[in-house]
User: What shape does this take?
Amino acid sequence: MSRPEQKPRTFRRLLALVVLVAIGAGAWWLWPGRTQDTSGGFRTGAVERGDVRVVISATGTLRATTTVAVGSQVSGQVQSVAVDFNDRVTKGQAIAMLDPAPFQTRLKQAQADLASARASVNEAQATQKNAEADYARKSDLLARQLIARSDADLAMAAREQARARVASAQAAVQQRQAGVDNAQLDVEYTVIRSPVDGVILLRAVEPGQTVAASFQTPVLFQIAEDLAQMQIDLSIDEADVGQIKEGLPVSFTVDAFPDRQFSGEVKQVRLSATSNANVISYPVVVQVDNADQSLLPGMTASAEIVVSRRDGVLRVPNAALRFTPPGDEAAAMVASGGARGGLTQDLPRVADSLKLDASQRAAFDAALAGVRERAAARMAGRTPPSTGGWGGRGGQGGQGAAPAGGPSPEAMRQRMAEAMERSFGDFRASLSPEQQATWDAELRTLSTARRGTVWKLVDGKPQPVTVRLGASDGTVTEVGGDIAEGDQVITGAERPAA
Assistant: This one.
C-alpha cells in the first residue's frame, strides 16, 4: 500500500525541481552581467550620414488672407437678405436691402428745398437787374448834376445789396443740392452691396431686423475675398523669432486631415510683440496655398517652421556630446588639449577648395606645420593654450565651456581667430583677391563655430575627438572634424551589475 502513495510524491518533487531549474535559467539569461559587452562597458552609437532639420513648432489659426466686414451706413429695417452662408458673391452684388421709404421721403423733401432755393435765386437776380438799371440812370443824372449825390449813393448801395442777395441765394442752392445728394446716397445705401469678390463667411442679419448705425456701424456680413490663398497666424517665442526669416518653408497639419501634410512659407514676421505672463512673443504670418479649398477658416494648424536644413552631413547622437568618461585622467586629457582633431583638421579642406598653385600650397603647408608644432609643444608642456586651443579644446558635454574663472567661449574663439590671422598672414598675402575673400569667409566660419568633444571607442578604449558642431534637431547634431562615417562614439556607460 505504501508504494502507490510514493509515486505521486516523487512526481511532484520532479515537477518542482524542473520549475526551479527553469526559473534559474531565466534569471541567468536576463541578468545584465551575463555577458561581457564588446564595447568595454560603454553604450555606443554610430557616426552616420543623413539629414538634419532644425524646426520651430507652433500652433495657429487658419484664416482667409483678406476678410471684409460689411455693415450698413444708414439705419433702418431690413427688408430682404439676398445671400446665405457660403454663397459666392461678386463685387457690387446686392446682398441685402433696407426699407427705402423713409429715405425716399427725405429725398423728395430735399429736392423740394432745392427747387425753392433756385426760385429764390431767380428772384434775387431780378432784384439785382432792377438795382443795376436804377443805379445806371442815377449815375447819368448825377453826371449832369440833375440829382443830389446822396441819391446816387443810395442807388449804388441798393445795387450792392442786390448782388449780395444773388450770391446768398446761389449758395443756398448749393447747400440744398448737397442735401439732395446726401439724401440720394442714403437711398442708395439702403441697398447693401458686396465690396469684393468672395465667399460669405458670416450672415448676422435677418429680414425684419432693425439696424441702428447711429454710433457704430454694425457688422452684417463677413466676406472672405479668396479662400484659395489663406494664412496662419502663429505666435513665436522671442527666443526663436531671431531664426525666422521671410520665405522659410513651413509644414503643418490640421485635425480635420490628420494623415495629410500641408505646406506653406513664412510671409511676414510682425514687430508687434505681445506679453503674456512675462513671456514675449511675436506674430508670424504663414502664407498657404489652398487651391483645392480643403482648408477652412478657423481650423487649428500645428506648424513646423524649417529654419535650417542640412542634407547628407555627418551627424552624431546628442548623447555623445554630453558624455565624459568618469575619472580625473579623462578630464585632464581634455582640459590639457589632448583631444584629437579640432580646427587644424578643417583647414586643409578649405585650402583644397581654393585650388592653390604650387607656391601657394607650399605657403599653406608651412603655416599649418607651424601651427601644429606649437600645438604639440603646448601639449608636451601641459600648458593651457593661450589662443583658445589649437589642439581642439572642447568643454565637457560638447558645450565648449571654459574652466571656472577662465575666459568665456566667445573670448576664446576671438583669440583663436586673431591667432589664425597671424599664423596664416603670409599665406593669405599670396592669394588672389577672390581667393582671399573665400579664405576670410571660411576662416571666420571656422573661428566662430561651436566646438565640442566626443569620445570615440578605439580598441575598446575611449579617445577624445574635438568636432565642429553644426545644426541640431534635438536628437542628432551635425559634426565636422577628425571623425568619419561609421565611427563608434560613446553615448553612455553601462551600469555595473548589482
Summary: The two ends are 52 Å apart (CA to CA). The CA atoms of residues 82 and 95 lie 5 Å apart.
